[in-house]
Design a protein that fits this description.
The complex is a heterodimer of chains A (353) and B (476). In chain A, 42% of the residues lie in helices and 20% in strands. Chain A has 353 residues and is an alpha/beta fold. In chain B, 37% of the residues lie in helices and 16% in strands. Chain B has 2 domains: 253 residues, 3-Layer(aba) Sandwich (Rossmann fold); 178 residues, 3-Layer(aba) Sandwich (Pyruvate-ferredoxin Oxidoreductase, domain 3). Classes of the chains: A alpha/beta (353), B alpha/beta (476). Chains A and B meet through strand 1, helix 1, helix 3, helix 4 and strand 8 of A and strand 1, strand 2, helix 3, helix 5 and helix 11 of B.
């Protein structure tokens, strides 16, 4: 077995190549610039297109144009850039265009700083743009997953004609790990709805405007039915040592990595602790978390925000078990012993739910 | 209905009935006397004449012409407000042979989408832009536009546009024409039949240049909006002549010149899958587990000045561990820290999946300078190892519960005339004193991590020199 040692940001570029992405539109922002830099190197080298745009607003509309023309297109940015793209993402949803966007989350609000937070959760998962739409959101926690989730995102985006987000963070992007590159290579196929500038597609129309209220309702109902299908098809998560657990940490991205270390320490101390790691946060693994709640397993939601994912956990729990929030912001990540302490406190009943 | 088409001269590029507007609908949504219908008829006629209907993609903007797709029997993409040039760019970079028509109003192009149009023009995107300037926001009901004239009353300039409060009208054709890339820029008008005919020629030329792949064309068209100007259609045409044309001078500002470079050919030639996989896996590290027993995990912290090779020392360590079958993680200090000042890297090697990549209590500390020793010596796990670069670090550790080693890494690197390779000395020494990974693995890993292959021999020489030094000092 041969591995390459690479950063999560580079793994994302390779995932995009394997996923059949032909168009990358980028704009620099720390800590996501390495993805654009990698694409600027790899895309032309492999006969694909990389372009640096004048702004994130333009980036997302270039993605819109390329996707309209049938291409597998993507971009990568961080919170401030994703915020600027939000209008365009709403239009992508309205026009039912497939796209892949990577968000290497940094600290906010405003300019914040370049260290990791997970505070874009609401913007990305709940939809930062206007209107009643959804994005499919994957949450990688390793270099290997950066590659695989980005690769698979293009297939999924085309299947459901939706935007797929890779919601990652500065640590997962900067960290170097062993990554194996031996998966399938995908390619986009001709789409019957896209506009190719030929006779066959002449009657096609890419739009998000439906002036007739009944037609808009019909369109929005269609979107909702797609979202329902996605919810049935794509929920993904990993459980580690949850079967006999008295307490389970719920975390994604870098927090799941720290959580993994913490439950090892706790198990050594004889504490029955487990880790529940959503690999998709939309659709959210509400049923699986509901099952834990039904068993009265205590849940500690660990994230680099004040509790954005914790809101979704509580919706899934519906008051059936104790849920505590461990949030850390500003670019600081929790130490393993801090999580161990938080779990210990919760078991003793000392931590406010 | 061919007879109707013949009678009204409707182009075959328009749908016969406008089903997208409503069943059997035959009339447009434009107001009487509006310029949009005139321009769109000219565009449709040109598409028909050039025989490019199948190839044409019409980009509808936001504004009154948002519904251009009701009428054009071509590929249609509706764009968000002002972003049509970015969408055109995305389409152009995907489809080489499509004929792309950008059609934007004054709010869309000169207001909210100013950045997009300037940059698309500046890149010389091969497409044709028709800019309908009627000095007012039409669809929203008559608000001030970037091209509204001074003194012109609108719903949001009820006392007339004031230069100090509202700025002056923007001349887009002039602005575009000063950029080097556009091949054709002209301002036309719909005020009189003569001007309409001139506009017709401009529309044709802008499309012809695109078909010939010459590059970016921009036609600004002064157009009446009787409804929002509060005029009859005839009064409105007169107002175009008497007011708009005096501020926005008609004429050709730029035309094709052989010196303008031909835009890049957008054809992509993707390499085949196997070729790509070969490229992507080049430099892969063959991994052979050196033990069937589970080995203890090790964590390292490497600290020093930026430029001492701190991060690549970590990478080298990780590459060595990976080739001996460990799972590895490497985490840098990054960002502003990287630009001078301190740098540090955390490396973990383990037979189990690695949890947190952050190293809070390293088993081994490699301190390449004094500040790194100060910052991290207290974090080293009891029984751990501290290795310092004694060329730079003068003080010894205060810890008594760790093993302490000193190697003059910078001096040794200087002696080998490879000042940047003090990190190789540190990693060599680290592996030699801990016995964690074999020196042979290190030799094999250096060429995988080293970026300047010319220095390979000198780097390998430094590994030997380090071992010799440690033996002479009876450290190993």
């Amino acid at each position: 077995m041969a591995y390459r040692l690479m950063k999560g940001n580079e793994a994302a570029v390779i995932g995009a190549l394997l996923g059949g992405c032909t168009h990358f539109f980028g704009y620099p922002i720390t800590p996501a610039s390495e993805i654009a830099q990698g694409a600027a190197y790899w895309f032309p080298l492999s006969g694909r297109m990389f372009m640096q745009s004048e702004s994130e607003v333009s980036v997302i509309n270039m993605v819109y144009g390329a996707a309209s023309a049938g291409a597998r297109a993507m971009t990568a940015s961080s919170g401030p850039g994703i915020a600027l793209m939000s209008e365009g993402i709403s239009y992508l949803a309205g026009a039912r265009l497939p796209a892949v966007i990577i968000d290497m989350q940094r600290s906010g609000p405003g300019l914040g700083n370049i260290w990791p937070e997970q505070s874009d959760y609401n913007m990305v998962v709940k939809g930062g743009g206007h209107g009643d739409y959804r994005n499919i959101v994957f949450t990688p926690y390793s270099g290997q997953e950066m590659l695989e989730m980005t690769r698979d995102a293009f297939e999924i985006a085309d299947t459901y004609r939706m935007t797929v987000f890779i919601l990652s963070d500065a640590y997962i992007g900067q960290m170097m790990e062993q990554v194996s590159i031996d998966g399938p290579v995908f390619h986009g196929k001709r789409k019957d709805w896209a506009v190719y500038g030929d006779a066959q597609s002449r009657n096609n129309l890419i739009t998000s405007i439906h002036m007739n209220t009944h037609l808009q309702k019909e369109h929005n109902d269609l979107l909702q039915s797609v979202y329902k299908q996605v919810s049935a098809d794509l929920v993904d998560y990993e459980t580690i040592d949850t079967d006999d657990a008295d307490i389970v940490m719920v975390a994604y991205g870098i927090c799941a990595r720290i959580g993994l270390s913490a439950i090892r320490v706790l198990r050594e101390q004889g504490v029955k602790a487990g880790l529940f790691r959503p690999k998709t946060v939309w659709p959210f693994p509400a049923c699986a978390i509901g099952d834990l709640a039904a068993r009265k397993t205590k849940l500690l939601v660990v994230e680099l925000s004040s509790g954005m994912m914790a809101d979704d956990v509580e919706l899934a729990v519906k008051g059936r078990t104790e849920v505590a929030r461990f949030g850390m912001v500003g670019g600081v990540t929790p130490k393993v012993e801090e999580l161990v302490q938080a779990v210990t406190d919760m078991i003793r009943g000392g931590r406010d739910a | 209905m061919p007879d109707t088409n013949e009678k009204f001269g409707r182009s075959s590029v328009f749908y016969d009935t406008f089903e997208r507007r409503g069943a059997e609908e035959k009339s447009t949504h434009y107001c009487p006397g509006c310029g949009h219908g005139t321009v769109q008829k000219m565009i449709a006629a040109a598409i028909e004449e050039f025989g490019i209907q199948d190839r044409t993609i019409f980009l509808s903007p936001v504004g009154c012409s948002v519904f251009a797709y009701y009428y054009f029997d071509t590929g249609n993409i509706q764009c968000s407000h002002g972003r049509s040039p970015a969408v055109a760019t995305g389409v152009r970079r995907t489809l080489r042979d499509a004929v792309i028509i950008g059609y934007q109003g004054d709010g869309d192009l000169a207001g909210i989408g100013l950045a997009e149009i300037i940059h698309a023009a500046s890149r010389g995107e091969n497409y044709s832009v028709f800019f309908i300037n009627n000095a007012i926001y039409g669809m929203t009901g008559g608000q001030m536009a970037p091209t509204t004239l001074l003194g012109q009353r609108t719903l949001t300039s009820p006392n007339g546009r004031d230069q100090f409060n509202d700025g002056r009208p923007i001349g887009m054709a002039e602005l575009i024409s000063v950029l080097p890339a556009p091949v054709y820029v002209e301002r036309c008008s719909l005020s009189t039949p003569k001007q309409v005919l001139k506009t017709r020629l401009a529309v044709r030329k802008a499309l012809r240049y695109q078909i010939e792949r010459k590059g970016f064309s921009f036609v600004e068209i002064l157009s009446p909006c009787p409804t929002n100007w509060g005029m009859t259609p005839i009064q409105a045409r007169t107002w175009v002549t008497e007011h708009l044309e005096t501020v926005f001078k008609l004429g050709r500002l730029k035309d094709y010149d052989e010196d303008v470079p031909v835009p890049a050919d957008p054809v992509l030639h993707p390499i085949d899958d196997q070729q790509m996989l070969t490229l992507l896996t080049a430099g892969g590290i063959p991994t052979v587990k050196t033990s069937v027993e589970k080995r203890p995990s090790r964590s390292f912290k490497i600290g020093g000045f930026g430029g001492q090779g701190v991060l690549s020392a970590g990478e080298l360590m990780a590459a060595c561990a990976l080739s001996e079958g460990y799972r590895v993680s490497w985490l840098p200090s990054y960002g502003p820290e990287m630009r001078g000042g301190s740098a540090n890297a955390s490396v973990i090697c383990s037979d189990d999946p690695i949890g947190s990549p952050v190293v809070d209590t390293p088993d081994v500390l490699l301190a390449m300078n004094g500040p790194a020793l100060d910052a991290f010596e207290h974090t080293v796990a009891p029984g751990g190892v501290i290795l310092v670069n004694s060329s730079v670090v003068n003080q010894k550790t205060r810890r008594t519960d760790v093993s302490y080693y000193a190697v003059p890494a910078t001096e040794m690197a200087k002696e080998a005339q490879l000042i940047s390779a003090a990190n190789v000395v540190m990693v060599s020494a680290c592996l030699a004193v801990t016995g964690f990974l074999s020196i042979q693995t290190l030799r094999e890993s250096i060429p995988r991590v080293l970026r300047k292959k010319a220095f390979l021999e000198r780097n390998l020489g430094l590994v030997d020199a380090t071992i010799t030094y440690l033996q002479q000092q009876e450290i190993i």
